[in-house]
Amino acid sequence: MRSFMRHPSSIPLEVVSDPKSRYASRLRDVGLGGLSYHASEPRRPGETVRLRIPLIADDFEITARVAWCRPDDQGYLMGVAFLLAEDAYRTRMIEQLCHIEQYRLDVLDREGRRLDSQQAALEWIEKFAEDFPAPVAAAQS
Fold first, then answer.
1. 62-71, 86-95, 113-122: which is most confident
2. DSSP per residue over 109-124, as a string?
């Protein structure tokens, strides 16, 4: 059973795999147990990386362990597992904020309506919160 939800592809992710390796990526999928993103270089399972989502929260940073790495058309698709349960919860909150921000931008583009963050959150919750997957243990994908 898949417990990852497609993440808005416009959400940037900063990846730090060692002091000399820092690069920008984009979130692909996120779930309770971990997330995936595109990487330009492969990493071995078991290695740790630090991840930041600067667009939403400057101070959001977690450490995760590489669970798998697969070649794809953009380099490598990297799957990482959260090391702490609280990081999974924090990431889930960030994920919802990302969806709300994407909704705000989509409404502006489609309808020309300018919503502030509060208005976008209220509309998104009313329209989509019911379909947002409930937290369950993430399966390896």
1. 62-71
2. HHH-----HHHHHHHH
Q: What is d(CA 141, CA 133) in angstroms, rounded to the nearest whole number? A: 16
Q: Which amino acid is at 83?
A: L
In one-letter notation, the amino acid at residue 25 is S
Which residue ranges form the domains of the chain, and what is each CATH number?
5-82 (2.40.10.220), 85-131 (no CATH)
Average pLDDT over residues 68-80: 92
* Location of structure tokens 């984009």: 26
d(CA 96, CA 80): 19
Q: What pLDDT, on the 0 to 100 scale, is given for residue 31?
A: 72
Tell me how far apart the alpha carbons of residues 44 and 11 are, in angstroms, rounded to a whole number.
25
For range 60-85, the mean pLDDT: 90
Sorted by sequence, the CB contacts under 8 Å of residue 89 that are 6+ apart come out as none
Give the predicted TM-score (pTM) of the model.
0.67
Specify whether the CB–CB gap between 100 and 120 falls below 8 A.
yes
CA gap 78, 42 in Å, rounded: 8
